[in-house]
Amino acid sequence: MSLCLDFVMNHTSEDHAWAKAARAGDPLAQSRYFFYDNWDIPNEYEKTVPEVFPQTAPGNFSWCEEAGKVVMTTFYPYQWDLNYKNPIVLNDMTDNMLFLCNRGVDVIRLDAVPYIWKELGTRSRNLPEVHILVRLMHLAADIVCPGTLLLGEVVMEPSKVVPYFGTVEKPECQMLYNVTTMASTWHTVATRDVRLLRHQLETVFELPNQYTFLNYLRCHDDIGWGLDFDFLGKFGMTEVSHKKYLNDYFRGIWPGSNARGELYNDDPKLGDARLCGTTASLLGLEPALESGEEEWVSHVVGAIESLHAFLLTQSGIPVLYSGDELAQTNDWSYHDDPLKADDSRYLHRGNFDWGKAVNRHDTTTPEGQVYERLRTLERIRADHEVFDADADVWTLEPNNDHILGVGRFHGKEKLLALFNFDQDPQTAYLPKGEVYKDLLTGDEVTADVLTLRGCGFRWLLKTY
After folding, report:
1. SS3 per residue for the chain
2. pLDDT value, residue 406
3. Which residues are marked as active site?
């Protein structure tokens, strides 16, 4: 087991020793943050800096009564932004990081890293100075504790993510969250059209193999629709209306949708909102269970398996969020907790369901079916070199916009992976009629005209 620890670079709590000294009037402590005597400069920032949480924490500044000043609080009023223009901040935060590294932390997760440099008149996101600071942190870690890796949390649109790998001469993070593929995957679930996802994967597949992504279907946070809207515009999809469609679909209010999710921080000014929900609930397991229809439940279980097969097909490190291995559904009880009710992320941050865990080996239950199927996928992935991170990877052309095709080749193994994002059976038309082995069934398959069940997939292997 390797230990990955969150390292919050952007801010400290208002209860941190530095913040307590700042509240008490210590000018040196106040210089670690962004303090202002009045609202003049903060109001100028607000003209260009977007709100992170427009519902639960509007604005980017808060009044500090004890200090009699305004302080920058990008995320929440109790989280005070650090001022990296003060070199003491960089020195002390680097020292804090190395303290953790020297106690055996294998991976340092740089939290909210795009926000760490602020500049008046800008969005204060992804500024060039951010990359300089990350390079300095990387350099310090390389010298003092070269076994520690940096994982960047960059929840931004696609063009902003990859630069955080840096370059060969100026490396930054060794690993990044593959937030773009995650968001594009759920877009594809809702639209049943793979063209955006295929386009996005083609960009990822062109990157050097040493660029390591953490791939995931969901995480502790919301799903933000950081999609390539320039590409979607070619098909008549505009940003505001399409985000509304996606959110309507995953809340189950779009006709024909069985998803069960909730909005997170709806911003009516920008027509923007993010989304929360577990994988099982977003795929419609809740109404399927309520119906008692075994065929419907089996269909959703297959969809959960298929999305995880897609996750495991990608190069990089697959991340399975706790509860997804048991098809855990939303925890609606957070609405009854006044400390959580304002934050819909608790919908999928619910307590682990140990009752379902007991059923994980009972394949007559949805949790047992999902658990055993995912274990099978994991074993297959571990047994075949074609899933190695050094494999050549490309997209296939199945001549069907409902089906995503991915090819992999490494050593003596070639994999064709096909994923049907439509609810109904679809047919893939491949150009060559080579014979492959179906990794799930063991059957020999001629890869030319292949029909996939609704929300189904195929892993086909050829050994040379």
Report:
1. CCCEEEEECCEEECCCHHHHHHHCCCHHHHCCECEECCCHHHHHHHCCCCCCECCCECCCEEEECCCCEEEECCCCCCEEEECCCCHHHHHHHHHHHHHHHCCCCCEEEEECHHHCCCCCCCCCCCCHHHHHHHHHHHHHHHHHCCCCEEEECCCCCHHHHHHHHECCCCECCCEEECHHHHHHHHHHHHHCCCHHHHHHHHHHHCCCCCCEEEEECCCCCCECCCCCHHHHHHHCCCHHHHHHHHHHHHCCCCCCCCCCCEEEEEECCCCEEEEECCHHHHCCHHHHHHHCCHHHHHHHHHHHHHHHHHHHHCCCEEECCCCHHHCCCCCHHHHHCCCCCCCHHHHCCCCCCHHHHHHHHCCCCHHHHHHHHHHHHHHHHHHCHHHCCCCEEEEECCCCCCEEEEEEEECCEEEEEEEECCCCCEEEECCCCCEEEECCCCCEEECCEEEECCCCEEEEEEEC
2. 98
3. 111, 153
